[in-house]
Amino acid sequence: MASLNSSLKQGLLYPKRFLEGRLKKSASQEGLEPGEGAVIDLNGKKTAVYQKSKDERIILSPVCTHMGCIVGWNKSDKTWDCPCHGARYEADGTVKKGPAQKNLERMKKISKD
After folding, report:
1. Alpha-carbon dihedral sign for residues 85, 83, 105, 91
2. Calpha distance 64→84 (Å, rounded)
3. Is residue 62 within 8 Å of residue 47, measured between CB atoms?
4. Helix (H) or strand (E) holding 5
5. What DSSP string runs through 7-51?
6. Residue of 56, 88, 53, 95 lying closest to 73 (CA atoms)
7. What's the whole-model pTM score?
8. Which of 9, 36, 37, 65 would bridge with 73, disulfide CB 3.0–4.6 Å?
9. Each residue of 15-68: pLDDT tens digit?
10. Which of 106, 108, 90, 39 is nearest to 69 (CA)?
11. Going by C-beta distance under 8 Å and a sequence separation of 6 or more, which residues neighbour residue 56?
12. Interior CA angle at 39 toward 34 and 41, to 5°?
């Protein structure tokens, strides 16, 4: 019964969290230090950016591969976490914990149009 209640609660919260991720204002790309990540607006497109080192950034789609919610950066664990169903990804976008089965999509450098 407890898992049924948990599933129902998750199901009811999913649409809210799905929309919140898309409407939430993106962080600034300025000031990202090595080892930090954030969902930022890069040339008009929401992206998940991990500052791997001073000179290297990993640019990912912030869209969870499970059901399409927008992931957020977990500072303490240095992971991308989905607020909808609990999927977790390593900083480089590889799946750490399901329910997602596919990695976050790597994005090519986004050009200014």
Report:
1. negative
2. 9
3. yes
4. helix 2-23
5. HHHHHHHHHHHHHHHHHSPPBPSTTPPTTEEEEEEETTEEEEEEE
6. 88
7. 0.76
8. 37
9. 656 556 555 565 655 678 999 999 998 888 899 999 999 999 999 999 999 989
10. 39
11. none
12. 110
